[in-house]
């Protein structure tokens, strides 16, 4: 579904004085996509969004909306609507006035506005609440009013700046599905910003992973999870165990890594780095907790890891084993609970096995902070 | 265009940006800076009739400042003792009024800032109401009280405490009371604002540690309230040194205030440059004095006006 | 220290403090109702409303009020506009410039009003000359100069009031409006301005009051348009009458009335807001039971008491006639005066006799002592600082001026004291 209006960022740089907030971003967003920028707080996500909505002039490069260069076009002239991190509902206006503010600007009559407000209130499941003040609504209701207000302006692109971050966990999970539904119903492009990888993975068609002003990878959620392009993407999205070392041998799609601690191990080179990783390079290997299984004692080879267990925990659906790992970090292993009996390994050595297709190698790089 | 201006116009739009910038420039440059500079410039010029202004006689001169120190040329005295005495008396009296106000207002500000309850609001209204009444009328009210047949004299002679009426006005008591009266609010509010934000627990903690009440004030409350105190003191000092109405109405016939000299130069002697020079001297001295005091008590300029 | 002792001393202190603060105003207000031609409360002569009548027939006062209103309006508009612009600038100015900028816009509060008046006068006079305009141009007009001079520092007060509220403004609101298609002007008008409205109202009231009562600056700039304060100052400096007390009473009453009204309104808003908060929790039907205007609202009660008192006073004023009482007092005074004149004549006679006797004895100089004359049209009342005590009254006692109107009788003790 590429009916909607797409957005392109071309060689986008944004500087605040000497500080580079966004460095050479190149992003193509398909029309009608639910596209997420995912990155830790302070990495420049809001900055990108402000450049798209027109509150910031890029220092270099262009923002294109529907193929049209937006240079010199103010935020009130762009076909975008932004949902602010703190929602920015107008506190002195009633809910219905808030929702139809964009019509008031264009001089629509009060009757028209009321009618449209009622439609939108029905859509966001708040019928009959139009005469309240925003301060009289709950957090989730306010959230929905902000969405309705933005949609009322009939934007081609809806920009959402961590809209769920202020909500509690339950509501957040509920709103995820609701947002996705709304997007599918209205069919316009959503650009969504979050530092929560769960939100990004569940809702998005495509995700851009950001680190300190740089976009590391743009792909759909599955690809980012299974085939990260950088050490940062691998460590930021989902839980991951890292093994540092050097590429000893590169064999096509696979590489043999001489790890600092766990001997020589084989893993798949992530797609983005094939042909780039050379023998002797510093490399990092990532294996997810659920990709391990406990091997019979004494097993060894290039896909076995032996380590001492520090502690274990029972989480219901999974059983977690933590062993001594690389650089002071623990290795986490999650064994699905099928009702089998577990033996307590604490203090003992344990041998773990993995499928080499589930271990990825990327060039050594910065890891996401815990 | 500097990046600051560019961002400013981006944020406010061209029309709104120009309006804001225009108003701010008109205010800061047209109303604040240029008039002061103009007055300064004027104070260095001789007093000429309008047709000669800008003519050959219109040259810079120090004579207006010399006049304050040495008096009229060929005068009988070496120094202009009359004006100089008025000048120093004004400054000293303004300092006294400030100290008096501080002592009077600190307890009230503390009490209002630390108590809760609806009577505080009524107190606040009672504080503000006098401030809304015309300055002249407030001075007038004090004159009714301090006059020779005023309330106080009637009361005291009636009670037989003294037998002839006491001349409050000639003794400047009326003047000082009037000046103190006029600026009470300006002393209370800054102190109140700061003390209100002082956490009660700090005082409780100090009390728990067995500190006597005066030490609590000296070590906890006053240091905390310093920005408010300096703000209030600065305002009261500047305003009482620059007061005109109260001295005119409550001052005795012989005790002039420096502003009255300025007023006379302008309105009675029609010597504007001389008046401007006196005004410059008053302004500069007051500013230097305040700055020196702020240095002495280690206060920042940014605290003033909060 | 004993805590009940402390509490008592606090209350005593408060009582003294508020007596100092409010006492003069109360006493001044009371003097407006005493028929004595000098404003005072003792001795109380007659309850009268004549000073109000006199006040309302005083053309200069009325004209002063008109000028004050015109200038007040101008100052409110200019200083609120500049104060708002100044506050907006303060929140966005380049950080390196902020401290300097703040110092500049706060300075007028600290600059003595006299200096502001002079600098305004001097500066615009120069501009006027540079433009080659005459003495009757707009730039040398008293209203223009006064508005400009007053706004210089009143704008600083407005700025402080406005910036306090502006700091609580979320600029994202303006951005949201822009994002939804509003122009900058629309966003300002529909979002920022409504948010700022309470602060703008306070700033406007403050500006008006400050303008209305300003003396120091205005005294240099008013030109042909003396404001009420200027007129009052002239009157107070050159002789005081209870008509001024009458004006003061009106101003005090209005101030108290509006202060209480405002407080009652605020209090009510608070109560309503509290009720609304509770209601949203309890019922969804929106059936909010408004609390009575008076419930828990002391200010409202005071307001009503005050209004009733005012109505009573005004009502009394329309029917009450103090003529008889005044006539009595006059008669008494006349008698008293005559008695004293007689006494003085007698004294004088005796003195003369004595002197003559002495002169005759000495056979010396024949000149009589020069009579000190008082050539002020109003008699002794305005003699500068003079005539303290009653003993100097002698020379005038020989020819008592006819008690004309308010300035009354020389024997009125106040005029003897020459309270100047
Ligand atoms: N107006 C600004 N001036 C200077 N630095 C800024 C400005 N706005 C953002 N930054 C900086 O840019 C970086 C990215 O900010 P932002 O885009 O808000 O991060 P986030 O990804 O959390 O939304 C941060 O380090 C922030 O400090
Ligand atoms: Mg952000």
TrEMBL record, chain A:
Keywords: ATP-binding, Nucleotide-binding, Transport. Pfam families: ABC_tran, TOBE_2. One of its GO terms (cellular component) is ATP-binding cassette (ABC) transporter complex. The keyword Repressor does not apply. The keyword Nucleotide-binding applies. One of its GO terms (biological process) is quaternary ammonium group transport. GO terms for molecular function: ATP binding; ATP hydrolysis activity; transmembrane transporter activity. Gene3D superfamilies: 2.40.50.100, P-loop containing nucleotide triphosphate hydrolases (3.40.50.300). Signal peptide: none annotated. Residues 7-237 form the ABC transporter domain. This is Spermidine/putrescine transport system ATP-binding protein.
TrEMBL record, chain B:
It is found in: Cell membrane. GO terms for cellular component: plasma membrane. Pfam families: BPD_transp_1. The chain crosses the membrane at residues 15-34, 86-112, 118-133, 173-195, 229-250, 276-297. Gene3D superfamilies: MetI-like. Keywords: Cell membrane, Membrane, Transmembrane, Transmembrane helix, Transport. It is a multi-pass membrane protein. The keyword rRNA-binding does not apply. The keyword Transmembrane helix applies. GO terms for biological process: transmembrane transport. This is Spermidine/putrescine transport system permease protein.
TrEMBL record, chain C:
Residues 65-262 form the ABC transmembrane type-1 domain. The keyword Transit peptide does not apply. Residues 377-391 have a biased composition (Gly residues). GO terms for biological process: transmembrane transport. Pfam families: BPD_transp_1 (PF00528). Residues 364-376 have a biased composition (Polar residues). Residues 345-358 have a biased composition (Basic and acidic residues). GO terms for cellular component: plasma membrane. It comes from the Bacteria. It is found in: Cell membrane. Keywords: Cell membrane, Membrane, Transmembrane, Transmembrane helix, Transport. CDD domains: TM_PBP2 (cd06261). The chain crosses the membrane at residues 12-33, 69-90, 102-124, 144-164, 191-212, 240-261, 299-320. Its main location: membrane. Residues 345-420 are annotated as: Disordered. InterPro entries: Bact_Polyamine_Transport, MetI-like, MetI-like_sf. Signal peptide: none annotated. The keyword RNA-binding does not apply. It is a multi-pass membrane protein. Belongs to the binding-protein-dependent transport system permease family. CysTW subfamily. This is Spermidine/putrescine transport system permease protein.
């Amino acid at each position: 579904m590429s009916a909607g209006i797409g957005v392109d960022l071309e060689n986008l740089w944004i500087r605040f004085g000497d500080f580079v907030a966004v460095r050479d971003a190149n992003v193509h967003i398909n029309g009608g996509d639910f596209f997420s920028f995912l990155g830790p707080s302070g990495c420049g996500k809001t900055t990108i969004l402000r450049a798209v909505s027109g509150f910031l002039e890029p220092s270099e490069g262009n923002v294109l909306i529907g193929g049209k260069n937006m240079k010199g076009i103010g935020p009130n002239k762009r076909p975008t609507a932004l949902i602010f991190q703190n929602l920015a509902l107008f506190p002195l206006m009633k809910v219905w006035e808030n929702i139809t503010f964009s019509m008031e600007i264009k001089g629509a009559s009060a009757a028209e506005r009321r009618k449209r407000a009622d439609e939108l209130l029905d859509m966001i499941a708040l019928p009959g609440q139009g005469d309240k003040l925003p301060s009289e609504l709950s957090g989730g209701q306010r959230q929905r009013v902000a969405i309705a207000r933005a949609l009322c302006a009939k934007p081609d692109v809806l920009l959402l700046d961590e809209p769920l971050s202020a909500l509690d966990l339950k509501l957040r999970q509920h709103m995820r599905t609701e947002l996705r539904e709304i997007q599918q119903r209205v069919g316009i492009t959503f650009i969504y910003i979050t530092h929560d990888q769960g939100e990004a993975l569940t809702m998005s068609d495509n995700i851009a992973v950001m680190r300190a002003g740089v976009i590391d990878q743009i792909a759909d959620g599955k690809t980012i999870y299974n085939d990260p392009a950088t050490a940062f993407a691998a460590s930021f999205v989902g839980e991951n165990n890292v093994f540092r070392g050097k590429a000893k041998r590169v064999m096509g799609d696979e590489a043999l890594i001489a790890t600092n601690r766990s001997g020589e191990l084989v893993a798949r080179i992530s797609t983005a780095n094939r042909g780039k990783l050379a023998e002797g390079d510093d490399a990092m290997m990532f294996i997810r907790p659920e990709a391990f299984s406990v091997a019979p004692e004494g097993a060894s080879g290039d896909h076995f890891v032996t380590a001492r267990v520090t502690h274990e925990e029972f989480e219901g659906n999974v059983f977690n084993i933590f062993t001594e790992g690389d650089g002071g970090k623990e290795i986490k292993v999650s064994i699905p609970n099928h009702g089998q009996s577990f033996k307590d390994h604490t203090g003992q050595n344990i041998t773990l096995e993995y499928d080499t297709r589930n271990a990825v190698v990327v060039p050594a790089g910065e890891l996401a902070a815990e | 265009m500097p990046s600051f201006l560019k961002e400013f116009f981006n944020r406010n739009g061209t029309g709104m940006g120009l309006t804001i910038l225009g108003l701010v420039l008109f205010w800061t440059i047209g109303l604040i800076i240029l008039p002061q500079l103009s007055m300064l410039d004027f104070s260095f010029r001789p007093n000429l009739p309008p047709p000669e202004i800008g003519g050959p006689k219109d040259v810079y001169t120090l004579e207006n400042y010399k006049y304050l120190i040495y008096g009229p040329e060929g005068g009988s005295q070496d120094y202009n003792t009359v004006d100089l005495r008025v000048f120093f008396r004004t400054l000293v009296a303004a300092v006294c009024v400030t100290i008096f106000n501080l002592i009077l207002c600190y307890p009230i500000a503390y009490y209002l800032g630390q108590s809760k309850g609806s009577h505080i609001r009524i107190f606040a209204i009672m504080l503000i109401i006098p401030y809304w009444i015309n300055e002249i009328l407030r001075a007038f009210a004090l004159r009714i009280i301090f006059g020779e047949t005023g309330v106080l004299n009637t009361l005291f002679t009636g009670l037989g405490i003294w037998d002839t009426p006491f001349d409050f006005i000639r003794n400047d008591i009326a003047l000082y009371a009037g000046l103190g009266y006029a600026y009470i609010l300006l002393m209370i509010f800054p102190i109140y604002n700061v003390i209100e934000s002082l956490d009660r627990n700090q005082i409780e903690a100090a009390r728990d540690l067995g500190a006597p009440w005066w030490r609590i004030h000296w070590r906890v409350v006053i240091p905390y309230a310093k920005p408010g105190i300096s703000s209030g003191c600065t305002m009261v000092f500047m305003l009482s040194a620059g007061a005109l109405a109260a001295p005119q109405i409550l001052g005795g016939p012989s005790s002039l205030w420096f502003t009255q000299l300025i007023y006379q130069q302008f309105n009675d002697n029609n010597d504007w440059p001389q008046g401007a020079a006196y005004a410059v001297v008053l302004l500069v001295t007051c500013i230097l004095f305040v700055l020196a005091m702020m240095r002495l008590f280690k206060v920042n300029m940014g605290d003033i006006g909060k | 220290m004993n805590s009940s002792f402390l509490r008592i001393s606090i209350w005593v202190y408060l009582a003294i403090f508020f007596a100092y603060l409010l006492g003069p105003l109360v006493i001044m207000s009371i003097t407006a109702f005493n028929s004595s031609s000098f404003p005072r409360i003792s001795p109380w002569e007659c309850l009268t409303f004549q000073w109000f009548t006199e006040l309302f027939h005083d053309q200069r006062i009325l004209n002063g009020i008109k000028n004050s209103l015109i200038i007040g309006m101008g100052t409110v508009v200019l200083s609120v506009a500049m104060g708002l612009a100044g506050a907006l600038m303060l929140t966005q100015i380049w950080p390196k410039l902020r401290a300097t900028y703040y110092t500049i816009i706060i300075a007028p509060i600290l600059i003595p009003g006299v200096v502001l008046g002079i600098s305004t006068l001097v500066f615009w006079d120069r501009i006027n000359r540079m433009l080659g305009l005459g003495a009757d141009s707009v730039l040398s007009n008293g209203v223009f100069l006064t508005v400009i001079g007053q706004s210089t520092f009143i704008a600083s007060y407005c700025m402080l009031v406005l910036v306090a509220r502006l700091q609580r403004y979320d600029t994202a609101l303006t951005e949201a409006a822009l994002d939804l298609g509003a122009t900058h002007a629309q966003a300002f008008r529909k979002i920022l301005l409504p948010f700022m409205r309470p602060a703008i109202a306070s700033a406007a009231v403050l500006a008006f009051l400050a303008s209305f009562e300003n003396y120091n600056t205005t005294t240099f700039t008013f030109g042909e348009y003396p404001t009420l304060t200027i007129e009052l100052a002239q009157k107070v400096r050159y002789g005081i009458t209870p008509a001024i007390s009458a004006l003061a009473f009106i101003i005090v009453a209005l101030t108290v009335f509006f202060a209480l009204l405002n407080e009652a309104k605020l209090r009510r808003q608070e109560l309503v807001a509290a009720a609304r908060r509770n209601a949203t929790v309890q019922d969804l039907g929106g059936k909010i039971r408004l609390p009575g205007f008076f419930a828990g609202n002391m200010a409202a009660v005071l307001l009503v008491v005050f209004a009733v008192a005012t109505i009573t006073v005004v009502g009394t004023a329309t029917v009450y006639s103090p003529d008889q009482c005044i006539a009595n007092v006059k008669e008494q005074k006349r008698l008293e005066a005559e008695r004293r004149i007689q006494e003085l004549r007698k004294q004088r006679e005796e003195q003369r006799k004595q002197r003559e006797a002495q002169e005759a004895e000495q056979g010396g100089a024949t000149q009589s002592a020069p009579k000190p004359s008082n050539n002020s049209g109003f008699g002794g009342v305005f003699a500068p600082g003079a005539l303290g005590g009653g003993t100097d009254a002698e020379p005038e006692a020989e020819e008592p001026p006819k008690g004309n109107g308010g300035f009354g009788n020389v024997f009125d003790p106040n005029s003897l004291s020459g309270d100047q």
